[in-house]
Write a structure and sequence with these properties.
alpha/beta, Rossmann fold, 2 domains, six-stranded mixed beta sheet, 10 helices
Length: 273
């Protein structure tokens, strides 16, 4: 990797990564007397795949919730596109261009694949409720446009055969793919993935890895992910930040992190839920 600056860097395989998209500055997060995150700083650059890893209980999910705006840090600040981000509601964060998937699948189980992915377009809808209820004029044209966008995502994720199937009937791996589709429907600038491979078999992990790389490559989407499978992390990521007991113990390329003794000790140690 070439020398990294706030304007970007070049990866070892020659990809050009843009400037800083999001910056976490001295983030501390407390829940009463419990410190979940302690004085952590790192950034996410446009166009990169940035992994957040660490043993169980390290504070990874708390950090992802800070990035997504679900948690407000007790100290420090989040900067997005160079501006300090004020306290925001989740829908405002989505409107800013940040979408996410969840560790525990959060789909509407009785709704079809198509309709679940359509819900990801909500922040893009401009017609009012009366127009939508009548399905007339601008509302009809808008829905047609949204359905066209969703059909492209369905084709991209190769799930045409299940487009009308209620997601509650789908196997776990396909449900995770539908959830990825719903997040992509929001056309995010920053996509947050919370353990996208959790519970998958080898074949499902290979498929999901391919889709994540394709989302990054074809859509230019910046991705931040939490993942326990170190093989997946090292293969997918441009840079990795490592947490342990709420602190940052490593930050760099996969090779740099792999050779960090403190990181090696943390992963050889006992899991601390």
């Amino acid at each position: 990797m070439n020398k990294m600056t706030s304007e970007g860097y070049t990866t070892a395989d020659g990809r050009k990564i843009g400037g800083t998209l999001m910056e976490m500055k001295n983030i501390t997060l407390r829940f009463g007397g419990v410190v979940a995150i302690k004085d952590i700083s790192f950034d996410i650059h446009e166009g990169e795949i940035r992994a957040i890893i660490g043993p169980n209980g390290a504070g990874k999910s708390s950090m992802l919730n800070v990035i997504s705006g679900f948690y407000v840090p007790s100290e420090g600040e989040v900067r997005f596109r160079g501006q300090k981000r004020p306290q925001m509601r989740p829908y405002q964060v989505a409107q800013q261009g940040i979408a996410r998937t969840f560790q525990n699948i959060a789909l509407f189980k009785g709704m079809s694949t198509l309709d679940n992915i359509m819900t990801g377009r909500i922040t893009k809808m401009k017609s009012n409720m009366a127009q939508q209820a009548l399905w007339w004029g601008a509302a009809q044209r808008e829905e047609d446009e949204h359905r066209e966008a969703v059909e492209k995502i369905i084709d991209f994720l190769e799930i045409q055969a299940i487009r009308k199937t209620p997601v509650g009937r789908l196997p776990y791996g396909l449900q995770k793919r539908v959830e990825l589709g719903r997040a992509l429907a929001a056309e995010p600038k920053l996509l947050l993935l919370d353990e996208p491979m959790a519970g998958m078999n080898v074949e499902e992990k290979e498929d999901m890895s391919r889709f994540i790389l394709d989302v990054n490559d074809e859509f230019g989407t910046t991705i931040a992910l939490i993942e326990h499978d170190m093989g997946v992390v090292m293969d997918l990521s441009d840079r990795v930040v490592v947490m342990d007991y709420g602190k940052k113990i490593g930050d760099g390329t996969p090779d740099e992190v792999r050779g960090n003794q403190e990181v090696i000790d943390a992963y050889l140690g006992v899991s601390h839920d």
